[in-house]
Automatic annotation (TrEMBL):
Top-level taxonomic group: Archaea
UniProt-recorded name of the protein: Thioredoxin reductase
Keywords: Flavoprotein, Oxidoreductase
Ranges of compositional bias, category Basic and acidic residues: 71-92, 231-253
C-alpha cells in the first residue's frame, strides 16, 4: 500500500506529527509497536492544560483518537526495515544520471521509501518520520543517516528534525529532545510542519477562526484554517464537552505498565 507519510512510532511525538500531516490531507500511516514510555507514568503532570495532571494512559488514548479524527491510520506493528526505493531521472546527454544533481537526482515524484514490518507487510511512502524512543536498527539500510551513540542511540538531525536523507525525519526523543511529554508533542508538530513546508504546501495553520475573522477584513482564509459561524462553534464545543465527560467520567481501565526490568519472568 502507498501513503504520503509513514510514521514509525505511536508515542507522543509520532501521534502529534500524524495529527498535523493528516489534517493537511496527506495520507498518513502510524506504525505503532506499543509500549510507549508515557504509559508508564503513574500520573502525568507536565502537559499544559491539565492543572491537576492526567492519567497517562488516558492521555495516550486521546492522542490516538485525535490523530485518527484528523484522518491518520494507525496499525499495531513493529517496523523492521526502512529502505530507499528511488527512481532516478536520465539527466545526462547519453542517459547518464547527473551525479551532481541534489538528492541522487530525485524529486518529490521520484523519492520513495519502502517500510517493512514484522507482520511481513510492505508499505511505501514519500516521507518517513522516525519517532521511536532509541530504536534505530530499522534505519540501517539507508545511507546518509547520522547516528549518535551516547549510551543510547539517537538520530542526527537539524533543528527542524531533518536528517541527512531527503524525505526522512526524526521526531521527539529519537532526535535528542528532552524526556518531557510537552516537548516531544511540540517537536512532533514542528517536524510535521517542516515536512509540509518541504513538500511545498502553502503556509499551514491549525486554527479554527470565528466567522468573518479573515473574510470581513478582505483576506482569504489561509490554508489549513477555517472560519465557522456561532452555531457551528457551539456544536463543536458541545461535542468537545461530551467527549471529555465520557473519557473522564471513570478512572482509566488500563493496568499501570512498569519498566520491563521490573516485570516478573
Amino acid at each position: 500500500m502507498e501513503y504520503d507519510v509513514v510514521i514509525v512510532g505511536g508515542g507522543v511525538a509520532g501521534l502529534s506529527a500524524a495529527t498535523f500531516t493528516a489534517r493537511a490531507e496527506l495520507e498518513t500511516l502510524v506504525l505503532d509497536a506499543g509500549g510507549s514510555l508515557i504509559r508508564r507514568n503513574a500520573h502525568l503532570e507536565n502537559v499544559p492544560g491539565f492543572p491537576s495532571g492526567v492519567n497517562s494512559r488516558q492521555f495516550s488514548d486521546l492522542l490516538v483518537e485525535q490523530a485518527e479524527n484528523a484522518g491518520a491510520e494507525r496499525r499495531e506493528s513493529r517496523v523492521t526495515a526502512v529502505e530507499r526505493t528511488d527512481t532516478t531521472r536520465d539527466d545526462g546527454p547519453d542517459g547518464e544520471n547527473d551525479a551532481n544533481n541534489a538528492n541522487n537526482a530525485t524529486d518529490a515524484n521520484d523519492r520513495r521509501f519502502r517500510v517493512q514490518t514484522t507482520d511481513d507487510d510492505r508499505v511505501t511512502a514519500e516521507y518517513v518520520i522516525a519517532a521511536t524512543k532509541n530504536e534505530t536498527a530499522y534505519l540501517d539500510g539507508i545511507d546518509g543517516v547520522g547516528l549518535i551513540d551516547r549510551g543510547k542511540a539517537f538520530v542526527d538531525t537539524d533543528e527542524r528534525g531533518r536528517t541527512g536523507v531527503d524525505g526522512l525525519y526524526a521526531a521527539g526523543r529519537l532526535a535528542e529532545k528532552p524526556h518531557q511529554a510537552a516537548v516531544c508533542a511540540g517537536h512532533g508538530a514542528e517536524v510535521a510542519v517542516t515536512l509540509l513546508e518541504d513538500d511545498d504546501r502553502p503556509f499551514y495553520h491549525d486554527w479554527v477562526a470565528p466567522d468573518g475573522y479573515f473574510t470581513d477584513r478582505g483576506r482569504e482564509v489561509p490554508p489549513g484554517c477555517e472560519e465557522i459561524d456561532d452555531p457551528e462553534r457551539r456544536r463543536r464545543e458541545a461535542d468537545s464537552l461530551k467527549t471529555m465527560r465520557e473519557r473522564f467520567s471513570e478512572p482509566h481501565p488500563g493496568d499501570q505498565p512498569t519498566h520491563p526490568s521490573l516485570r516478573e519472568e
